[in-house]
């Protein structure tokens, strides 16, 4: 019964989404205010029924209702509750429901926090979001219904892949989806602006916080995914340039570009068409990612069960959504004349360079990801494009980007003097150069061009941001949140860069055979194998080794690498023992028993690896802080008080001209 | 109207074309670089006479087939009937390359009893205990079937279990054609 | 025929998805650290041809193990990086290399990004120049009006 309610609620949500997608938009074009007014309540209702639907599926998982095919395929009663919950989005159908719910949630949030937005604009934004929702719910109901029942009810469900039975991976997909889907808000704002043919500073102020929040979720999602891969997959890697990872990276890079371009559009009324294009690109790349993950077009380690038929559906959906928005762009973009002009040396130019580099990066990642397919399509055989390629091309681009980043804060809008900038930057520039050359020599008595480059870029960006705060000469507590946000996000980026540089160059690893009582020395640490025991936990049996890690005779930590057997035809899983630290991680994975109380181990020393994710967390926090800047809310209130009636009038007349133009 | 604003749209249309191709394409099938190249040499013991060796060179001068199989390979069982029919019909000399099977700890004598159960259509069975000959032939997964012409050039590779339609439409015409060649 | 093949192959692929996780630990000894480095680099840059998308180092598929072993044998026999790469590409084509070789069909892949960068620099400079020209020529009453309005209220009307 409950699954049927869920199914029915999903159908209701679809019907509401159709209404939400059609009437407010139509009403805004032909001037029917009562149709326009549907948008907000519809977005709430859609959210409500999607929640009901989601809750019903969740209930089926929690009560082990194996009559539901999706539950039986992905969950069993032995699994801990938390993973029975996360199993809901562990496979294709359920993850789509989460996608739809997230989209509904974003729509309702836009509806709720929209007091300052003119009803016509809001109606169009919510209509576009409604139409996207229609596509996803149709997809679910036609090809991937999570509520499908089984005629023969199994007594026990299948095991969720043990890799996915992990807290990191339980929250990684929701975060990522919040980010992917969150970009649909900026996208919808862009479409609404194109329909209206008008794009002003107020528009940019509405779009900015939503973009920031979506970007924040994307940042957290990617960071979490990378961290998960590191500790769960057992070989200490944190980024593999797999197509699926690239699919999440591309919208993130475009989102980063969009955040900066929106700033120019708001403050200087410039980059308008470009901003619109980035809004479209960001969400389009999210959709493209969905397609790549689920269609089986590219081989990936993380692929969902791929199905060409589903792939075709998503492709048609892509064609409709992206194709129509780019067509609209092609015919409307010329309307967005940029008013603000700027000279070669100006913050606008700096941000333009930033945007261009970010877009080239995106294009490069896309090119590398799709190149095997392109070669294949031209009948020239099969090739692989992997980490060596991506590292090779992104490092120079990243270097350029970070050099620009360091200048960013100091350059004035519109026009600036190189001599003035030079006065401001010489301190951070000198300090970071000295640090980059001297620090490695003192600390590890080594000189490596890559280390120096990485350290220079990291400290240059960090010092640039910090010196800017200092040079303002006012209390840092009086700085607006958005400034804090960008300072913190930039420092986060610098941390990530330093982490990547150091761990790539200085990590060491060794495969060793240890008997109980034996030990091995790596990077100044002694790893002593002291014990091995067998444990029965929830739904697996673990062999757990104990490694005593000492440094110069002093105990640093005990590590407990495990090998887990989940039975039921599942491969054994490696659960690494990790001693995390601010400047280094020690990482041990347990291999096979070799007889005679001996086991094989793989031991890593990974300097500064944690900085990669700490940087990611800082970036996300920065994005969040910036989104909560008072400015976005205050402006709204002003608009509400002063111009609500007139803006409504103006906008509706605007509509008519927009529709006939 | 400005032409440059159409660039993203056109780029996207090209991308959709690529995706359409991708949907019909299987990224897992890797073409063998041996096609048109000389067949890699191997010298392996025969399954029933372990002291006798068989080599690729001694097959020269005739059109022949190399079939990689193993007793632990489930789809080889499905393939076996079809392959036997091909060998029977075309009277084509076929070497079964028994890949990482006989003589390994887990599978002692498995290959012999497998052939006893399902029939032995092969001219000879070569035993590749550690898989090194398989690697030389660029094995991706068993079963795999190669067709080699009179000059010892690899002309065709079939990845995965051979099925009836492939035998009738590809292998039989190919072997006929290769036999007519000089 | 193609579809039939897919029906047969896809279930096999699906079963193997994810199943290749869990570390493979092997003990190898090398003459010197350079040889060891070469081995580690090679198994990181060679692709397991049977896996979803993993290099030799990360995969514990049986074939990956054999390919690692072959690589190891060649490395300790004193073979160069090129020798190993040539051996592998002779059997599996360029597919086996995660770093695609520079040749005609990968031309766009390798020169695309720098080319894009150069073009962008050119267009940025041109755009900034043009925009300055435009400004002096085509400032209209409408523009002035819109600027005034922008200054007047935070809500704007730059039509």
Fold and architecture overview:
The complex is a heterotrimer of chains A (661), B (182) and C (159). Chain A has 661 residues and is an alpha+beta fold. Chain A folds into four domains: 1-165 and 629-661, no CATH class; 170-178 and 191-410, no CATH class; 417-506; 508-608. Chain A has helices at 2-30, 33-36, 39-62, 69-74, 81-86, 92-112, 119-143, 167-196, 201-232, 243-268, 272-295, 308-332, 347-377, 387-408, 418-444, 449-471, 481-506, 610-627, 630-660; strands at 508-515, 519-522, 525-537, 540-551, 554-559, 562-565, 573-575, 577-579, 584-595, 598-607. In chain A, the strands form two sheets. In chain A, strands 2, 3, 4, 5, 6 and 7 form a six-stranded antiparallel beta sheet that branches. In chain A, a hairpin with a 2-residue loop joins β9 and β10. Chain A starts with a helix and ends with a helix. The relative contact order of chain A is 0.09. Residues 635-661 of chain A have low confidence and may be disordered. Chain B is α/β, with parallel strands linked by helices and 182 residues long. Chain B is built from five helices and seven strands, in the order αβββαβαβαββα. Chain C is mainly α. Chain C has two domains: 2-101, Orthogonal Bundle (Helicase, Ruva Protein, domain 3), CATH 1.10.8; 105-152, no CATH class. Chain C has helices at residues 2-16, 33-45, 62-76, 81-92, 107-137, 141-152. In chain C, α2 packs antiparallel against α3 (62-76). Chains in contact: A-B, A-C, B-C. Chain A binds chain B through residues 273, 277, 280-281, 284, 288, 291, 295-299, 308, 311-312, 315, 318-319, 322-323, 326-327, 329-331, 333-334, 370, 372-374, 376-377, 381-382, and chain B through 1-2, 5-6, 8-9, 12-13, 15-16, 18-25, 27-28, 30-31.
């Amino acid at each position: 019964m409950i699954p049927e309610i869920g199914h029915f609620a999903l159908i209701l949500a679809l019907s509401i989404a159709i209404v939400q997608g059609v009437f407010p938009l139509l009403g805004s074009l032909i001037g029917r205010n009562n149709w326009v007014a549907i948008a907000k309540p519809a977005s709430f209702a859609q959210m409500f029924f999607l929640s009901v639907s989601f809750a019903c599926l969740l209930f089926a998982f929690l009560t082990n209702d194996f009559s539901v095919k999706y539950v039986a395929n992905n969950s069993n009663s032995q699994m801990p509750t938390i993973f029975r919950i996360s199993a809901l989005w562990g496979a294709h159908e359920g993850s789509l429901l989460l996608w739809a719910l997230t989209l509904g949630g974003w729509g309702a949030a836009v509806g709720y926090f929209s007091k300052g937005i003119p009803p016509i604009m809001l109606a169009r934004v919510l209509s576009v979001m409604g139409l996207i929702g229609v596509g996803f719910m149709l997809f679910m109901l036609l090809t991937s219904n999570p509520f499908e029942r089984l005629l023969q009810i199994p007594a026990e469900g299948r095991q969720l892949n043990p890799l996915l039975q992990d807290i990191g991976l339980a929250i990684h997909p929701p975060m990522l989806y919040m980010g992917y889907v969150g970009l649909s808000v900026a996208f919808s704002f862009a479409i609404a602006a194109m329909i209206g043919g008008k794009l002003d500073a107020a528009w940019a102020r509405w779009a900015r916080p939503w973009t920031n929040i979506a970007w924040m979720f994307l940042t957290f999602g990617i960071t979490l995914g990378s961290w998960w891969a590191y500790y769960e997959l057992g070989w200490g890697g944190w980024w593999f340039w797999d197509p699926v990872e690239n699919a999440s990276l591309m919208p993130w890079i475009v989102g980063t570009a969009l955040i900066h371009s929106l700033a120019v559009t708001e403050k200087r009324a410039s980059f308008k068409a470009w901003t619109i294009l980035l809004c479209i690109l960001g969400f389009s790349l999210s959709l493209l990612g969905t397609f790549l993950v689920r269609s089986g077009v590219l081989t990936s380690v993380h692929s969902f069960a791929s199905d060409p038929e589903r792939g075709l559906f998503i492709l048609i959906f892509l064609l409709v959504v992206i194709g129509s928005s780019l067509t609209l762009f092609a015919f409307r973009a010329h309307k967005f004349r940029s008013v603000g002009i700027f000279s070669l040396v100006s913050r606008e130019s700096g941000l333009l360079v930033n945007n261009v580099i970010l877009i080239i990066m995106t294009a490069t990642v896309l090119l590398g990801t799709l190149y095997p397919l392109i070669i294949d399509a031209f009948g020239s055989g099969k090739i692989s494009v992997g980490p060596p390629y991506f590292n090779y091309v992104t490092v120079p681009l990243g270097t350029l980007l970070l050099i620009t980043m360091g200048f960013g804060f100091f350059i004035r809008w519109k026009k600036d003097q190189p001599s003035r900038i030079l006065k401001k930057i010489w301190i951070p520039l000198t300090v970071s150069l000295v640090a980059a050359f001297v620090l490695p020599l003192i600390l590890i008595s080594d000189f490596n061009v890559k280390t120096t480059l990485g350290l220079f870029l990291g400290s240059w960006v960090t010092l640039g941001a910090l010196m800017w705060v200092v040079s303002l000469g006012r209390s840092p507590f009086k700085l607006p949140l958005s400034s804090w946000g960008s300072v913190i996000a930039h420092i986060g980026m610098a941390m990530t860069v330093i982490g990547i540089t150091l761990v790539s160059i200085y990590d060491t690893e060794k495969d060793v055979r240890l008997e109980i009582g034996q030990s091995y020395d790596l990077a100044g640490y002694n790893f002593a194998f002291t014990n091995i025991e067998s444990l029965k936990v929830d739904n697996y049996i673990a062999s757990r080794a104990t490694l005593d890690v000492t440094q110069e005779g002093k105990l640093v930590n005990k590590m407990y690498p495990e090998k887990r057997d989940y039975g039921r035809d599942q491969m054994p899983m490696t659960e690494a023992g990790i001693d995390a630290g601010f400047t280094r991680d020690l990482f041990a994975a347990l291999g096979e028993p070799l007889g005679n109380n001996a086991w094989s181990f793989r031991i890593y020393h990974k300097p500064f690896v944690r900085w990669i994710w700490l940087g990611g967390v800082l970036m996300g926090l920065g994005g969040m802080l910036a989104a909560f800047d008072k400015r976005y809310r205050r402006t709204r209130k002003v608009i509400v008080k002063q111009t609500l009636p007139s803006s409504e009038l103006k906008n509706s007349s605007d509509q008519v001209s927009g529709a006939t133009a | 109207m400005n032409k440059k604003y159409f660039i993203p749209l056109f780029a996207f249309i090209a991308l959709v074309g690529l995706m359409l191709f991708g949907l019909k394409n299987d990224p897992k099938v890797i073409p063998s670089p041996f096609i048109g190249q000389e067949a890699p040499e191997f010298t392996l013991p025969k399954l029933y006479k372990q002291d006798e060796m068989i080599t690729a060179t001694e097959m020269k001068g005739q059109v022949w087939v190399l079939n990689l199989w193993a007793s632990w390979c489930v789809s080889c069982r499905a393939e076996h009937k079809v392959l036997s029919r091909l060998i029977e019909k075309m009277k084509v000399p076929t070497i079964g390359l028994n890949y990482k099977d006989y003589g390994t700890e887990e599978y002692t004598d498995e290959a012999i009893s497998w052939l006893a159960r399902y029939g032995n259509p092969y001219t000879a069975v070569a035993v590749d205990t550690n898989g090194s000959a398989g690697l030389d032939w660029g094995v991706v997964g068993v079963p795999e079937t190669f067709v080699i012409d009179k000059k010892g050039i690899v002309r065709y590779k079939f990845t995965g279990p051979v099925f009836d339609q492939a035998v009738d439409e590809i292998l039989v015409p190919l072997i006929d054609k290769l036999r007519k060649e000089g | 025929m193609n579809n039939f093949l897919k029906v047969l192959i896809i279930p096999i692929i699906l079963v193997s998805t994810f199943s290749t996780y869990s570390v493979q630990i092997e003990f190898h000894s090398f003459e010197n650290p350079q040889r060891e480095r070469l081995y580690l680099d090679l198994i990181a840059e060679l692709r397991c041809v049977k896996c979803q998308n993993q290099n030799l180092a990360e995969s514990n598929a049986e074939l990956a193990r054999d390919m690692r072993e072959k690589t190891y044998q060649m490395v300790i026999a004193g073979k160069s990086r090129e020798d190993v790469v040539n051996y592998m590409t002779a059997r599996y084509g360029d597919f086996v290399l995660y770093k695609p070789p520079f040749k005609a069909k990968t031309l766009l892949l390798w020169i695309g990004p720098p080319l894009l960068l150069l073009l962008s620099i050119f267009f940025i400079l041109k755009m900034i120049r043009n925009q300055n020209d435009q400004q002096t020529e085509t400032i209209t009453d409408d523009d002035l009006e819109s600027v005034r309005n922008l200054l007047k209220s935070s809500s704007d009307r730059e039509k």
